[in-house]
C-alpha cells in the first residue's frame, strides 16, 4: 500500500497536485483549515480540475488538522505567509519519519518550517506550473511547466518520486534547489514589483529597460554575496527573455494587488533586501523599490508584509 499524500491547502497548487495524484489512483487526503471549510467542501462532489477546457472532478477525502491519523507525507500548498502556522497545527500528527514537500514561492518560509521540525525531512520545490482558482474547489490548469525538488541537507532522492511519474507531474530531482529558488526569486524581484508600480503587463517593462537593468546588476551582486554565483549568471538576459516570453501576462504580484489579496513580498523582494542588509550590502535601487512597493500596498489597504 502506498503512503498517503496529505495535501495541506486546497488552493491552486494543492488542487493541481491532489487531483493528479488521485487520478493516478494514489491515496490522497486534503487538510482544510477548519470545520466550516470542511463542511463547504463536503457539500460538493470533490475537487475539480479544468484542463484544456475539460473539467474532471475527483472525490478526494477531506479532513481538518484535528483528525487523529498520523501523517507520513505532507505536501504544503499554502502561501508562503501561511505555511509555518499551517504546519504548526499538524506537528502532533507528524510521524518520526515524516517527509514534507514545500511548494512555496520565494525564500524564507521553507527555513521557518524546517526549523520548527528538526526531525522531519523537508524537501523544497520550485515550480513553473501555473494554476488559478475559478471558485472554491475548482482550479484551472493554466500553464504546463516543470517542478524541481531538492533537499539542502540530503542529496538522495526519495523513492516516492515514482508517484509523481505515475501522476504525470513533470519533475526532476535537483541537488541545486537553493540556486533554483534564488534564481526564481531574483527574476521575480526584477519583474513583479515593477509591474505593480507601473500597473502594466510584463511586456510593458520593455519600455523601462534601464530600471530593469539597474535592478539586475544589484540582484546579481546580492546573489554573488549570498554564495549563489550560478544564480547570478546572465541574470539580465534571462530577465529580458522572460519579459518577452510572458509579454501578454500580468505577474502574480500584479494579480494579487489587483484582486486586493495579500502579496508574498516578504518572501521575495523583502527577503532579498533583508539578505542585503545582513551582508551590509548597499543596493539602493532594490531598497528604493521595496519602499515604493510597500507604500503602494499601504495606500491600497493591503498588508505591507
Ligand atoms: P492559493 O490558491 O491561495 O491556495 C492556498 C491554500 O492554502 C488556500 O486554499 C488556503 O485555504 C490554504 N490554507 C492557508 N492556511 C491554511 C491552513 N492553516 N490550513 C489549511 N489550509 C490553509 O495559493 P497557490 O496559488 O496555490 O500558491 C501556493 C504557493 O505556491 C505560493 O507560495 C505560490 O507563490 C506558489 N506557486 C503558485 C503557483 C500558481 O500557479 N498558483 C505557481 C508556482 C508557485 P482557504 O481556501 O481556506 O483560504
From TrEMBL:
Keywords of this entry: NADP, Oxidoreductase, Pantothenate biosynthesis
Pfam families per UniProt: ApbA, ApbA_C
Pathway(s) this gene product operates in, as recorded in its UniProt entry: Cofactor biosynthesis; (R)-pantothenate biosynthesis; (R)-pantoate from 3-methyl-2-oxobutanoate: step 2/2
GO molecular function: 2-dehydropantoate 2-reductase activity; NADP binding
EC number annotated for this UniProt entry: 1.1.1.169
EC top class, as a word: oxidoreductase
GO biological process, alphabetically ordered: pantothenate biosynthetic process
Reactions accelerated catalytically: (R)-pantoate + NADP(+) = 2-dehydropantoate + NADPH + H(+)
GO terms under cellular component: cytoplasm
Alphabetized InterPro entries for the sequence: 6-PGluconate_DH-like_C_sf, 6PGD_dom2, ApbA, Ketopantoate_reductase, KPA_reductase, KPR_N, NAD(P)-bd_dom_sf
Residue intervals of the Ketopantoate reductase N-terminal domain: 5-153
Role: Catalyzes the NADPH-dependent reduction of ketopantoate into pantoic acid.
Family assignment from sequence similarity: Belongs to the ketopantoate reductase family.
Descriptive protein name: 2-dehydropantoate 2-reductase
The species this protein was found in: Pseudomonas spelaei
Lineage: Bacteria, Pseudomonadati, Pseudomonadota, Gammaproteobacteria, Pseudomonadales
Amino acid at each position: 500500500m502506498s503512503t498517503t499524500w496529505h495535501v495541506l491547502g486546497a488552493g491552486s497548487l494543492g488542487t493541481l497536485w491532489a487531483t493528479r495524484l488521485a487520478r493516478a489512483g494514489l491515496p490522497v487526503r486534503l487538510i482544510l483549515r477548519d470545520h466550516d471549510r470542511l463542511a463547504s467542501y463536503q457539500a460538493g462532489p470533490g475537487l475539480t480540475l479544468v484542463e484544456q477546457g475539460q473539467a474532471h472532478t475527483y472525490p478526494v477525502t477531506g479532513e481538518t488538522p484535528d483528525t487523529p491519523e498520523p501523517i507520513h507525507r505532507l505536501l504544503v500548498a499554502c502561501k508562503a505567509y501561511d505555511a509555518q502556522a499551517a504546519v504548526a497545527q499538524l506537528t502532533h500528527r507528524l510521524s518520526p519519519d515524516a517527509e514534507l514537500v514545500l511548494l512555496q514561492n520565494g525564500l524564507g518560509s521553507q527555513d521557518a518550517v524546517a526549523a520548527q521540525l528538526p526531525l522531519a525531512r523537508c524537501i523544497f520545490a520550485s515550480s513553473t506550473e501555473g494554476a488559478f482558482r475559478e471558485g472554491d474547489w475548482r482550479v484551472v490548469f493554466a500553464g504546463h511547466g516543470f517542478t524541481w525538488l531538492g533537499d539542502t541537507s540530503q542529496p538522495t532522492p526519495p523513492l516516492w518520486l515514482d508517484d509523481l511519474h505515475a501522476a504525470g507531474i513533470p519533475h526532476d530531482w535537483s541537488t541545486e534547489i537553493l540556486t533554483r529558488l534564488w534564481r526564481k526569486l531574483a527574476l521575480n524581484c526584477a519583474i513583479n514589483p515593477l509591474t505593480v508600480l507601473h500597473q502594466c503587463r510584463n511586456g510593458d517593462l520593455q519600455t523601462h529597460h534601464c530600471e530593469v537593468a539597474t535592478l539586475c546588476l544589484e540582484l546579481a551582486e546580492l546573489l554573488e554575496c549570498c554564495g549563489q554565483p550560478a544564480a547570478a549568471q546572465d541574470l539580465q538576459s534571462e530577465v529580458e527573455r522572460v519579459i518577452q516570453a510572458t509579454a501578454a501576462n500580468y505577474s502574480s504580484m500584479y494579480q494579487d494587488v489587483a484582486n486586493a489579496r495579500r502579496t508574498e513580498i516578504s518572501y521575495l523582494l523583502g527577503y532579498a533586501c533583508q539578505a542585503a542588509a545582513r551582508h551590509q550590502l548597499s543596493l539602493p535601487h532594490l531598497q528604493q523599490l521595496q519602499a515604493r512597493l510597500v507604500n503602494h500596498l499601504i495606500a491600497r489597504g493591503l498588508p505591507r508584509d
